[in-house]
């Protein structure tokens, strides 16, 4: 099943309810699993609009369970609720190319 296939894992985070969030840059989405590994939902898709990614490079889970994703090709940070709702996006195009060293 596609929900359990991975190709290019970029980041794995765990929220306060022990749900597991997996960022896969090849499938261009975040897959969410419960603490037992059962798929709950997926969100994100390729594109340039709200809730869409070009190259999702990193994901970070804040203490309030808001998910921040760096899309290096779109040059923006996108913030999501644990349910996958796009809360806001911040462009970093004026900062140059952002990468992790």
Structure overview:
It is a single chain. This protein is mainly beta. Helix content is 0%, strand content 47%. Strands 1-2-3-4 form a four-stranded antiparallel beta sheet, with no helix packed on it.
User: For the largest beta sheet, what order do the strands appear in spatially?
Assistant: 1-2-3-4
Terminal Cα separation, in Å? Answer: 34 Å
The number of distinct β-strands equals 10
- Number of DSSP helical runs: 0
The secondary-structure class comes to: mainly beta
Helix content: under 10%
What is the mean predicted local confidence, pLDDT? 90
Major beta-sheet overview: 4 strands, antiparallel
Shape: globular
Beta-strand portion reads over 45%
Radius of gyration from the alpha-carbon trace, in angstroms = 13 Å
- Detail the poorly predicted runs: none
Short description:
The chain has 101 residues and is mainly beta.
Features of the shown structure:
single chain; 101 residues; mainly beta; 4-stranded antiparallel β-sheet
List strands and helices in order, with pairings.
Elements: E1 9-14, E2 20-24, E3 29-33, E4 39-43, E5 45-46, E6 52-53, E7 56-61, E8 67-71, E9 76-80, E10 86-91
Parallel strand pairs: 5-6
Antiparallel strand pairs: 1-2, 2-3, 3-4, 7-8, 8-9, 9-10
